[in-house]
Design brief:
Blueprint (H helix, E strand, L loop, with lengths): L1 H22 L5 H11 L3 H18 L1 H4 L13 E7 L15 H14 L2 E7 L3 H13 L7 E7 L2 E2 L9 E3 L5 E3 H7 L13 E6 L17 H4 L6 E2 L26 E5 L8 E3 L3 E2 H13 L5 H13 L9 E5 L10
Parallel strand pairs: 1-2, 1-3, 3-7, 7-9
Antiparallel strand pairs: 4-5, 5-6, 8-10, 9-12, 10-11
């Protein structure tokens, strides 16, 4: 009898590890595996895995039960998601086209649709058009929604700032500061989003600096090698210029509650993009959301993104964020 208990305990441990391994392969891997076991009359093992998955899911959901510390996403769609994707820049901008950004846009459009957002994509906008589109989104009635997401894929550069660093470029070469974009959605500019999370994801350079990193013992040859030459989403910063380099006027920001800004790179540094597979940041962000959004809050997800991007390539990149959320944010995955 003692041997039987030891054997069953060992089997439960094996089942628990199998569940963890399958969960890393996407949200559908475990249910499909259990279904295959049932189809092949392996009902005992299927039942063991299903029971283990339910216990693990119950354990994972515990942080969400304290609703005082978690944003509630009950609406469907849970919010608007605007993606601005600037690829083709006008000759007078003196900025290169952003080859591969269409792949980034497709990935994020699909991902946020799965996360129950109403997604709208705008391509190749001038700075004036960007301001108009953002203002129009802020002026909508978000009363029936629980949150809002803005994604900007473009060239970028440094600007003087008080709260949020960086600026993103329109296809004409002029720019709008991240601080100004966030300010459009504050409590004054967008009353129907008061108290609701507003998430911003910025794929753009934060400056011209390149980070070659430093050697650590765990760096693998795979991470150091690169199959192609990544491009930069940088625009030059030259104080006094009248185009993309111009210092934007810095507007004051009310109490920055319920705001989360995720940057693809550390302020002042370049952000890298592969013409064939898209930007490092978006590629990793999409993968992390696919695997971990059902289980982890936004801050934890972005920690995974930061680690994975930091491990890539010879020229290094470190994503970061400004978190002014009052609660934990879990994406809606079912």
């Amino acid at each position: 009898m003692g041997t039987t208990r030891a054997g069953s305990g060992s089997r439960r441990d094996q089942a628990r590890q199998l569940i963890i391994d399958l969960e890393t392969r996407g949200s559908r891997a475990l249910p499909l595996f259990i279904s295959c076991l049932e189809d092949t009359a392996q009902d005992e093992l299927a039942s063991l895995l299903r029971s283990g998955a339910e216990k693990r899911s119950s354990s994972t959901e515990k942080p969400r039960q304290n609703m005082d510390l978690v944003y509630v996403l009950s609406a469907d769609p849970c919010g608007h998601c605007l993606i601005i994707n600037n690829i083709n820049f006008l000759p007078e901008s003196r900025l290169d086209d952003r080859t591969g950004s269409d792949l980034d846009c497709q990935k994020l459009q699909y991902r946020f649709q799965l996360l129950h957002f109403s997604v709208e994509v705008k391509c190749d906008l001038t700075t004036k058009e960007m301001n108009l589109v953002l203002a129009e989104l802020a002026q909508r009635d978000h009363s029936a929604m629980d949150c809002c997401v803005v994604v900007i894929l473009s060239h970028g550069h440094e600007v003087s700032h008080r709260q949020f660093p960086g600026a993103v470029c329109g296809i004409d070469g002029s720019s709008v500061s991240i601080e100004r974009i966030v300010n459009i959605f504050n409590g004054t500019g967008c009353p129907s989003l008061r108290g609701k999370p507003k998430l911003f994801f910025i794929q753009a350079c934060g400056g011209k600096l390149k980070d070659r990193g430093f050697e650590v013992a765990s760096t693998s040859p795979k991470d150091r090698a690169s199959g192609s030459n990544p491009e930069q989403d940088a625009a030059p910063f030259q104080e006094g210029s009248g185009t993309c380099d111009q210092l934007d006027a810095v507007s004051s920001l009310p109490t920055p509650s319920d705001i989360f800004v995720s940057y693809s790179t550390f302020p002042g540094f370049v952000s890298l993009r592969d013409p064939k597979s898209g930007s490092w940041y978006v590629e990793v962000l999409d993968s992390v959301l696919e695997q971990w959004a059902p289980y982890e809050d936004l801050q934890s997800l972005l920690l995974r993104v930061g680690k994975a991007v930091a491990d890539k390539g010879i020229c290094k990149q470190m994503p970061g964020c400004f978190n002014f959320l009052r609660k934990k944010f879990f994406f809606k995955t079912h």
